[in-house]
Amino acid sequence: MVAIARPIARWFVQARYPTGTNMLPILMYHRVLREPDPLQPDVPDVRQLAEQFRALAGAFKVLRLHEAAEMLREGRLPAGAACITFDDGYRDNHDLALPLLREYRLPATVFVASGYLNGGCMFNDTVVETVRRLDHGTIDLSEVGLGQRLVSDIPSRRSLIGELTRAIKYLEPQRRIEFCADLCRRAGTTLPNDLMMDDHQVRAMADSGLVDIGGHTVTHPILAKVDADQARREIAENRDRLQTLTGRTPLCFAYPNGKPDLDYAAVHADMVREAGFEAAVSTAVGVATDQADPFQLPRFMPRERSAAQFVARMMRMATHRHPQFAR
């Protein structure tokens, strides 16, 4: 966004999100790439993220999530308030996003699934990196209901990544692990071991003065698919690990996958509250209001390619005030 446009954008944003309306847009990111990846078209590269952050710095009042959640509850959000979040704990959050946060002086919350630190690889990245490396030809995926699939060009690989991710996301965790391991064997490949942060990078993020580290469970299970005792362990052990690692108690939590009633239930929101967190976010698409459950705050993922489109999306989201929440 050019400098001359910033006052105009700020005026429109503050007119859409004025003081007293208590509407909080919370942005959800995962990875940021050095260069665009044709297999991951919805993942921003560093240039695109810089444009979005520049727009945020010029037109919005970006707040720390736990502070914004408190202000929202108390009805005292400033005009144009917004929050930035990243999920999972990717290394590029440290290497690429943190320098941009510093450049534009923007706070953010990074939700870390602690079991994948120091060389781990999440199942969705296993799918992406394996399909990327598959030889041209046919692969039998009948085991997960996808039948025989031809793998050839970029569009076929991109399509397969989406379908395969959806097909195995809700498998029982051990079966999902076994399937991913078999997929790697059939591809004759090894997975990268540097996608996620290590302990040092998490500490550096926490010590930056801009990033709050939030809870995201240990192994990123679909909480609705595991028993209550395991869900509590995942939440509590993740909290304790992050507290030991950073010297700070995590204040906010993000539900893995995060769809209300499908991926987590109201009982899991109660578990998060009982574990001492102050707020939690879902992936229900919408803008949070003072009527929202502070342990089920909605978010949305920006996919716009330009600063103008990004700001326009932020403005449109002001009408999305009634997202779903688990009951």
Domain count, please report it.
Answer: 2
The general outline is globular
Q: Biggest β-sheet, characterized?
A: 5 strands, parallel
Distance between the termini: 41 Å
What is the C-level CATH assignment of the largest domain?
A: Alpha Beta
Q: How many DSSP helices?
A: 11
Q: What structural class do the secondary elements suggest? A: alpha/beta
CATH fold topology of the largest domain: TIM Barrel
Mean pLDDT: 92
Oligomeric assembly: single chain
Question: What's the helical proportion of residues?
Answer: 40-55%
CATH architecture assignment of the largest domain: Alpha-Beta Barrel
Count of distinct strands: 12
**H-E order:** HEEHEHEHEHEEHHHEHEHEEEH
Contiguous low-pLDDT stretches (5 residues minimum) are: none
Domain NodB homology: 80-327
Protein name: Peptidoglycan/xylan/chitin deacetylase (PgdA/CDA1 family)
Pfam families: Polysacc_deac_1 (PF01522)
Organism: Sphaerotilus uruguayifluvii
Summarize the structure.
With 327 residues, the protein is α/β, with parallel strands linked by helices.
Structure explained in plain terms:
The protein is α/β, with parallel strands linked by helices and 327 residues long. The chain has 2 domains: 3-119 and 193-319, TIM Barrel, CATH 3.20.20; 123-187. It is built from 11 helices and 12 strands. The strands form 4 sheets. Strands 2, 3, 4, 5 and 8 form a 5-stranded parallel beta sheet that branches. A 3-stranded parallel beta sheet has the order 9-10-12, with helices on both faces. A two-stranded antiparallel sheet has the order 1-11. Strand 4 (81-88), helix 4 (91-104) and strand 5 (108-112) form a beta-alpha-beta unit. Helix 2 runs parallel beside helix 4, helix 2 (46-59) crosses helix 11 and helix 5 (123-133) packs antiparallel against helix 6 (154-168). The longest helix has 19 residues, at 228-246. The protein is globular, with a radius of gyration of 20 Å. The model has no long low-confidence stretch (mean pLDDT 92). It comes from Sphaerotilus uruguayifluvii. Pfam families: Polysacc_deac_1. This is Peptidoglycan/xylan/chitin deacetylase (PgdA/CDA1 family). InterPro entries: NODB_dom (IPR002509), Polysacch_Deacetylase (IPR051398). Residues 80-327 form the NodB homology domain.
